[in-house]
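Fold this sequence, please.
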Amino acid sequence: MSSKINVLQVIPKLGYGGAETGCFDLAHFLHENNCKSYVVTSGGPLLKYINRKKVKVIRLPVQSKNPLLILLNSIVLIFIIFFLNINIVHARSRAPAWSCLFATKITRRKFVTTFHGTYNFKSSLKKWYNSVMVRSDLIIAGSNFIFSHIQKNYSTYLNKKKKFLVIFRGINTEYFNPKKIKDSDKTLLRKKWKIDNDKKVILLPGRLTGWKGQEMFIESIRNLKENSSDLNFIAVILGSDQGRKIFKKKLIRLVEQYRLNNEVLFIEHLELMPIAYEISDVVVSTSIEPEAFGRVSVEAQAMEKPILASNIGGSNETIINEKTGFLFEAGNSKNLSEKLGEILNLSEVTRNGIGAEGRKNVKVKFNVEKMCNSTYSEYKKLINA
């Protein structure tokens, strides 16, 4: 086998989530470090940004949970591994991980998984399905919270032969950089979203789904309006329903019921997220279940914006409370509205100080270079073991 590291990352779809952007960043980093870099995916909007001269993309239906397709994908992966002389196969989700497990067993290649979420289980069958993420040679947890979650719930699948460690997700601090945003871009976005310049902006990014806490957020906006009549603000819920049409209609009805049509704005999608952060006065993460990492919290800090997040999961690790951001009691709309009012009334000097500390925090702990270097280092150890 060649001493050069040839890496095949496998991910269901290249969207804009944390797992997807991590895969994207690592794929390009590997090329810059004299590795051959390949990505197997079913597609996704992030594909158009991949530099095809640096990263080779192979399209397979690896998003499917159909057992027959999982088996067929594993057979195709076996041929890909042999043909491209792959050393390491890195799976980032459960369905493709099963295909990768079968393929690496047959080809005797090293298998890596990144545990990106809690993968909640309601039955022993679901837990067994999730366990594929800890059946690899190297298990990467995206946060200390996830590390503890794996130890607590999947200890029977762990052994001394497996390496198990934390590599924090990283973001591109040059992309999420407030100094790179033009005033004209901010003006255009406010105009597009029909937000007056004198309105303070509360931004809630994230896909529309129950556990992300949008219902509770809308309730907190009602409280904020009732108790802070002097505040001139608008709350922007930025995210796709991803087919959850009924849930989105429920949110819209809630806004209408509370007569918040002038205070809440729904935006489906925005590719240039740094501009959305830049026009915001406070960024919110309202998850009522633990975030594995909390990418929004990290991006907001990188953009030097005050972040207010639920005090559960990864946010406890990424935010230094009252220094780089703020935490509120998860699921408590009253506490959320109180904290929002406090943050929106902070002096500009205080807000700028929090923003500066936030960016410093991200550059030290959660930058993409650190994530990629740590992963690459573990790849080399795995090959040489």
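The chain is about 45% helix and 15% strand. The first strand starts at residue 6 and ends at 10.
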